[in-house]
Amino acid sequence: MMKVNQKRNRVLRTQWFQDFPFEFVALEACLEAACCCLENEAKTLELEAHPALDKLTSKISTLNLERVRQIKSRLVAIIGRVQKVRDELEHLLDDDEIWLRCI
Description:
Strand content: under 5%
Order of helices and strands: HHHH
Radius of gyration: 21 Å
Oligomer: single chain
Largest sheet: none
């Protein structure tokens, strides 16, 4: 049953690619890649954050504080990149000239 669903999804995806201009397909691929990358980084950071916060709550030390500070800095960087992707997507969606060229 799983192979049938996968094959059907592949066929539907291929039809979707053929029905839309190349620009839409390329944009979808780029967004998917960017979102997957950001999601993986966020998951990795979450896995590191829980033990670091647990250590900090059990023992406040310079080393534990520094680890949590580094994790927070990485989180702020990821949030900034997410915001950049969001801003660029909003810019594309708001630009009527881009959409008129794609029709």
